[in-house]
Amino acid sequence: MKNEHKHELFEQYPQLNELAKKATVLWENTNWMKNPETTLFTMAEVDDAEATLQRFSSYLKVAFPELLESDGLIESTIKEIPAMKSAIEQAYDVAIPGQLLLKCDHALPISGSIKARGGIYEVLKHAERLALASGRLKEVDDYAILATEEFQSFFQQYTIAVGSTGNLGLSIGIMGKKLGFNVVVHMSSDAKEWKKALLREKGATVIEYEADYSVAVEQGRQEAEQDPKCHFIDDENSKDLFAGYAVAAKRLKEQLERTNISVDEAHPLFVYLPCGVGGGPGGVAYGLKEIYGEHVHIFFAEPVASPCMTIGLMTGLHDAISVEDIGLDNRTEADGLAVGRASKFVGKVMETYISGCYTVSDEELFTSLGLAMESEGLFLEPSAHAGMYGAIRLLQQGQSYLEKNALVNHLPQATHLVWATGGSMVPPTMRAAYLAKAEEFN
Ligand SMILES: *Cc1c(COP(=O)(O)O)cnc(C)c1O
């Protein structure tokens, strides 16, 4: 981006100055709509994803016995976290009206992060397409046959490639290798050693880059283009990933109903989603808005060093602006969120869907990490703690949003849902290191 353009942008969007200084801000989306529409995506694609996952349930039970209990569904629970709520209220001297819920995607089976939704879905959909086209599989078959030797060697002719900061690679790698595919994961410099080691142990090829996520993705895309038998999972543009993530919204609706949690005018639902390139939180946000319309209020959470979706939406430039353009270095301990340039596809859909974005500092992430362990015995990876600050930011910096949308009086009946996006796969030694670091901030 040219310097003279930057100057104009900072004048036009003064909040960029605060973001450039790594301040913790809440940006309110003035294009937010009660019942938005988009031409870029449909709920039918989400229904298809749900049906595909259902067809694969018998296979998944054979491939991953941990899924026997859920009858082959990859799903997480919701739970109240009252002790964490008190801990946050005390630590930050705020009262949070309403209840605080956690969506436990950190404990999703198979790969322990939100990527177990979109990532695994895209691998399964691709496998199904190949198997159907070969005549080896019919839609009416019991998909458990995909676990047989015949299919293993069939999939061995094909490669799946992906660029990742870590968790997407992990999901694609574990699922792809289980089916028999060759898997190549292009890892950014942020990716943690243990994630690379685990992938290699599973038989995936891991290619490491000194550069950040965007470069890893671009290299992966280029290499995959040379090979007609290679499918590239494009974290920046994939509608399949998005559809897989969005399935969570339909399932959440059922979970809230089962636990008698209402979502209506008198009971607003606030959802706080950690955001990297945008696909995971975007898919969930899309689905939830389609279901709940004006009664759901969705905020994306980003590290102060990597607010790519915030600046993309604020300026309307989407992937034409990067965090480096405003002088930020994209360096954060929240490895899953270390993305400098947001997905244009997701940003475009989100223009009228999300209520806003906010930023969190690494110190806050570690403070929350310590508080969650102390209060609830709950461990989440640093990225996932970005969601914990949603209620605080909204109450302290989102007054105009609350007033404009007549939410103030309904806050005592509100539900704040923090989307816990990852953590259960973090090995004990890393956990201990994170907790030690958290001690420094508490
Ligand atoms: C990937 C990831 C996110 C964000 O998802 P995007 O699709 O990159 O926006 C959030 N939290 C964790 C732990 C992740 O791994």
From TrEMBL:
Catalytic activity reported: D-serine = pyruvate + NH4(+)
In alphabetical order, the GO MF annotations are: D-serine ammonia-lyase activity
| Matching InterPro entries | D_Ser_am_lyase, Ser/Thr_Dehydratase, Ser/Thr_deHydtase_PyrdxlP-BS, TrpB-like_PALP, TrpB-like_PALP_sf
Q: Per the database record, which ranges form the Tryptophan synthase beta chain-like PALP domain?
A: 98-399
- Does the keyword Lyase belong to this entry? yes
Q: Does the keyword DNA repair apply?
A: no
Q: Which residues carry this modification: N6-(pyridoxal phosphate)lysine?
A: K115
Q: What is its EC number?
A: 4.3.1.18
Q: Which cofactor does it need?
A: pyridoxal 5'-phosphate
* EC category: lyase
A Pfam family matched in the record: PALP
Q: Which UniProt keywords apply?
A: Lyase, Pyridoxal phosphate
Q: Which NCBIfam families match?
A: D_Ser_am_lyase (TIGR02035), PRK02991.1 (NF002823)
Similarity comment text for this entry: Belongs to the serine/threonine dehydratase family. DsdA subfamily.
**What protein name is recorded for this chain?**
Probable D-serine dehydratase
Q: Which organism is it from?
A: Lysinibacillus capsici
